[in-house]
Amino acid sequence: MKYLGFLIALILTLTFAIGLSVNLGQIPPLGILFDPNHGFWQNAYSEDDKYDNSIDLEGLNDSVRVAYDENLIPHLFASNEKDLMMAQGYVTAQHRLWQMEFQTMAAAGRVAELVGKRALDYDRMQRRKGLGFSAEVGLQFLKKHHPETLVLIEAYTSGVNQFIDELGTADLPVEYKILDYRPEHWNAYKTILLLKYMADMLVGDKDIEYTNLHALLGEETMQKLFPDFPNEMDPVIESDKEWDFTPYEINKPEDLNYPDSSLLIQPIPTPEPGVGSNNWAVDGSKTQSGNPILANDPHLNLNLPSLWYAMQLSTPEYSVKGVTLPGALGVIIGFNENIAWGMTNATRDVRDWYAIRFKSDKKREYLYNDQWIQSTLRVEKIQVKDDTTYMDSVVYTHYGPVVYDETFRGNGQKINFSLKWTAHEGSNEQLTFLELNRARNHQDYLQALDHFTSPAQNFAFASNNGDIAMKVQGKFPLKWPEQGKYLMDGNNPAFEWKGYIPADQNPSTLNPERGFVSSANQHSTSQTYPYYIFDDSFEHYRNRRINTRLLEMENITIKDMQNLQMDDYYLHAAEALPVMLDYLLEDTTRVFSENTEALIDSLQNWNLHAQPQFTGPTLFTMWWEQLMSLTWGKYKREGMPIVFPSNYQTTKLLRDQPEDSVFDNPETNSKENAKQIVEQSFLAMERELNEKFEEDDDYSWANYKKTSIQHLAPNFTAFGVQNIPTGGGKGIVNATSHRKGASWRMVVEMGDEITGKGIFPGGQSGNPGSKYYCNFVEKWARGAYLDFNINSYPGQGNWLFSSVLMPND
């Protein structure tokens, strides 16, 4: 009970937080919460003294050995795959049950069941995006086309539910006690829904913002500020790649008319630019050992319990190790005895919006091709804690659900917005990971990816036979140039998608001459690729930094790859800061105050690395944000969302076209240029700095960022870790910001003896009272890794503890 004091402090803090919170509702029944036999006291344990036993599971064909290493990472050894999946479900639920259920309830729009009416708007959005509908379609797809996958999901489900059935009140994870509810049974629908939730987290669009900005600026300025192919883009697939297929011909229709409107809705939140993921693989020609090395670090929200749960899964046919997604089967990112793989978000535009005109307020018919056709109605029953059930009527067109209308975030507009999204279609992403777990070579890898639809991902690959590869995988619509960039007319069939790019024509490469593959959320290809590719958030800095380093490096080791994952060189600052300082100091007669001189001196002497103790990255970032606001903020209108041009494009204009009209403020009598914007933004930065650090003059990068890892329920602040000293930042290879960062770092060297290293920012346990809850955080922050090798059958090995799951005959 050595962690009892820690847990008491957490609970006391949390109890007051709940009472004061605007997000979580009523204080739970304190009698139950503080009951010494059933309340939070029972959660003051660490798993090494709880799970060292044998357990009977109904439905197992043979026993499954579960051996835990010193970091509480379970290694499961089963005689067949069905038993393995059942054991994975049971073991995952032992450590992450509340997380599994909470994430699927959030995905399904069921948070109001737990916290009341304050979550109703969130739940309505989730339902109106169609996540639950997507999971239903996915489940039917599996029943019809992939029943063998469903058999394994049902085995996993059985393992989860048998653990749930064992739980008494005292055994419940502490979050259930705080929020005063019990877990419900798992099912296959929830596993599919979880994977759809990941698609939702990783997809983005700016159709509404682009539509508004186009109305303000016009076509010519939009093309200048948002070019499809910026300079120096350094795509995922090497620029000189030759395509060995005959593409479909897609022509842009003539005389297109777009809906004429200024759109005042609140768009769906999208992924934050600059904090995406990295992966790469180098072949033996560039490594010291002569073996390929693969690295992956997906950057996502920093949460506790951690998004990932590390695990090894073994049968006589294969052994795979890596990180799993609690609630989904198999290893999601990892390696087996033959291959390694990793993923980054491909940031492709696979979600489009259509303006719909209904015949009447009843919305039973809508106009398409100048004819009235039938819509369908889906009634969403949203249960609300301590309130009546809310009935939300969501209309579906053939495009998809009408997300925004006069009843939801429409702001009085008469436009109805229907969402078309690849995630709404039947698919089997789960099978991709099951087949990757078993894969032996590049052909197996390609076959596994064929099942993957959404979210679009860049899959890096390395194998024991020396191959390295990359494929941009997803179900990508065939589009004519600029299709889907703006809100489209739902009546006009010309705006329909023209089908899908064949999977074997998705961008890919195998063993490129340069000796490496890499991705960092940048543009997938160069202009030689025959299909239209667009997204609003392609990366411009991390990709170029990674590729520059990989081109330079020789005799690469695992340590070199770890160092590259932690690289904190601020390429954006390297390109923008000299220009900004030149403009600021152009007038040599200008006299600065002593404080201003000190700030300038700090910037001039900064080595352009974003290390925690440095002040340079703080000053540059604050200065740049003020510059962006002064340059583009003039286009903001009350309640009308827009998108700013990228940092890359703004820097290019700053450097190459300082007299461009974009720097002029039309509300003043003079004509501003880049130099004046730079000067004004520096003064604004200085004022902000004095205000922000008035009581604390520590404006080091770590103190400015205040990297924090929050509990999945944001109000449970005592269950998080605050103000972690980290380097890196947005647009930097180590893309660690305030609330986002590397959710998993992995480096794997292939060969006769595979060497794996990995770390994630948290711990294996989902229990805040456990010493394994956040024990990796300090190592993660300083760039340390765990040894992460595949282990053979344990026998009498040196394990922390082990248990056996036995068939219940």
TrEMBL record:
Keyword Transport: no
Keywords from the named record: Hydrolase, Zymogen
Keyword Hydrolase: yes
A Pfam family that the UniProt record links to this protein: Penicil_amidase
Classification via InterPro entries: Ntn_hydrolases_N, Pen/GL7ACA/AHL_acylase, Penicillin_amidase_A-knob, Penicillin_amidase_dom1, Penicillin_amidase_N_B-knob, S45
PANTHER family: ACYL-HOMOSERINE LACTONE ACYLASE QUIP, PEPTIDASE S45 PENICILLIN AMIDASE
Family: Belongs to the peptidase S45 family.
Protein name: Penicillin acylase family protein
Organism name: Echinicola jeungdonensis
